[in-house]
Specification:
By secondary structure, the protein is an alpha/beta fold. It has eleven helices and eight strands. An eight-stranded mixed β-sheet has the order 1-2-4-3-5-6-7-8, with helices on both faces.
């Protein structure tokens, strides 16, 4: 495990890693998740052997610190992720990022293009004000103090054991603020960033989730959109073979 300060006040972002050659593959989790839980089995596959892999937990999540006075905007998370990559001595990394992590990765690529050479996004949030069915809505239906004061436990009971197993490791206040800012989006908005980036971009959409809104426009902008058979939101768990192929650039 490694760590570096991210807020100028002593709070640390932490990650675990496996050795290998560069450019590194940097795995970034979604809202209320943990990077290694969702991606370690992917990085261990023989098709991806030999590359350095970093499993970064965003502020407020997993093994990273959770300062109460941190903003937890997408930009804040992206800057913390940049601090981790700088400390790790990585530039031009490949980011494999899920859900909210995909939004953070996009903001990072916009703010620090030197750090990102390729994006593999899995069901990343691209727009502000997502539909009511979005996972963040489980959290933002409550006000922050109500969520911290007890609704957090009710949400854990409601979301099911898979998501709850990592969400319970996230700080409730950090979780609520992250969800709130995710739904507000970045400036420029994540979709516009994705369409304008001059790097290799792959977007994975689970077949069971339904058709990707605006997918044709993304493809026209050079984004490779892949619909993954038999998969829902957690593509890396539902169809790891297809996920590995996309990360390796084979699918």
């Amino acid at each position: 495990m490694r760590q570096t300060e991210f807020d100028g006040k002593g709070s640390c972002i932490r990650w675990t890693e496996t050795p290998g050659e560069g450019p590194a593959r940097v795995y970034v989790h979604g809202l209320g998740s943990v990077s290694s839980v969702y991606h370690a089995h992917i990085a261990a596959r023989p098709e991806l052997a030999g590359r350095r892999s970093l499993f970064v937990d965003l502020p407020g999540h997993g093994i990273s610190d959770r300062p109460e006075d941190f903003g937890y905007r997408l930009e804040d998370h992206a800057d913390a992720l940049a601090a981790a990559l700088d400390a790790a001595g990585e530039s031009g990394a490949e980011l494999i990022a899920h859900s909210m992590g995909g939004s953070v990765a996009l903001v990072l690529a916009h703010r620090r293009p030197d750090l990102v050479s390729r994006l593999v996004l899995t069901e990343a949030n691209l727009d502000a004000s997502p539909p009511p069915a979005a996972g963040s809505a489980w959290i933002t239906v409550y006000e922050e103090e109500e969520f911290v004061g007890g609704a957090h436990a009710r949400v854990l009971d409601a979301v099911g054991p898979l998501w709850a197993s990592t969400m319970r490791l996230a700080d409730p206040r950090a979780l609520h603020r992250s969800a709130t800012w995710l739904r507000r989006g970045s400036d420029p908005i994540m979709r516009d960033i994705l369409e304008g980036l001059p790097i290799d971009r792959v977007f994975l959409q689970g077949e069971l989730t339904g058709e990707l809104a605006g997918g044709a426009a993304l493809e026209a902008a050079g984004v490779r959109v892949v619909t993954v058979p038999g998969a829902g939101h957690n593509v890396m768990l539902d169809n790891p073979d297809a996920f590995v192929a996309a990360v390796a650039g084979q699918g």
